[in-house]
Each structure stands twice: as structure tokens, then as C-alpha cells.
Design goal:
By secondary structure, the chain is of the alpha+beta class. Helix content is about 40%, strand content about 15%. The longest helix has 22 residues.
Length: about 120
């Protein structure tokens, strides 16, 4: 099965790659610690939603956004460990779908995110 880690408002942070299918973390063979981290990561993203005018949704500051991205990459690596070899796990960020952590290293090295 191919899944991706991607935050979207009001959803679980896991999705099918080949079909639009939102996947609850509890449906996968994940540790409770990882499930809790995934849910907390999604909650952080949901809190950025500006209910009055969604186009203005954003993180409160640049550090909060960088922390969110850092945790997303860390979660992705954890998913790769816990779900291999039965699942192929991707990470989607800023419209790009990443297959391997080395791909994201190039993109975020400039932004000083440790991968």
C-alpha cells in the first residue's frame, strides 16, 4: 500500500497515494507513541486555520512553522521505520511529493531544518 503524510484541515494526516482516501492512524500497525505524535501534529496544523477568512490561515510565526515542518519530517522517518516493508510512505509538503528523505534534504537544507 502507498500512503503519504500530509496535513490538511479537519482530516487525519495520512492519505492514500493512489486514491483519495484519508486514513486514521489507528488503522495502521503503528505504535501508540507514533499515533499520538501524528494526532498532535495534525492538531497543530488545524489550529492555524483562520475560520473567518481561510486564505489568511498561517502559523503564528516562522519558528512555529519550522518546528511543524521539522516534526513532519521526523514523523515521516518514523513511519518509514514502523511500516516497512508492507507500506511505501511518502511525504507531501508545499505541493511536492517526496519519496525518500534525501530528496527533502536538498530542499530544506537552506532553511536550516535538520532531516
Amino acid at each position: 500500500m502507498r500512503i503519504k503524510l500530509w496535513a490538511d484541515y479537519g482530516s487525519y494526516p495520512l492519505w492514500g497515494v493512489d486514491e483519495i482516501d484519508n486514513i486514521a492512524p489507528e488503522e495502521l500497525p503503528l505504535s501508540q507513541a507514533t499515533i499520538q505524535r501524528l494526532n498532535a501534529w495534525q492538531d497543530t496544523y488545524d489550529k492555524t486555520l483562520n475560520q473567518d477568512y481561510p486564505p489568511l490561515s498561517d502559523f503564528p510565526n516562522q519558528q512555529a512553522e519550522m518546528d511543524f515542518k521539522q516534526e513532519g519530517i521526523s514523523l515521516w522517518k518514523q513511519l518509514l521505520l514502523e511500516l516497512a516493508p508492507d507500506y511505501e510512505v511518502f511525504y507531501q509538503n508545499e505541493g511536492q511529493l517526496f519519496r525518500h528523505p534525501k530528496e527533502i534534504t536538498k530542499k530544506y537544507t537552506v532553511q536550516k531544518i535538520t532531516v
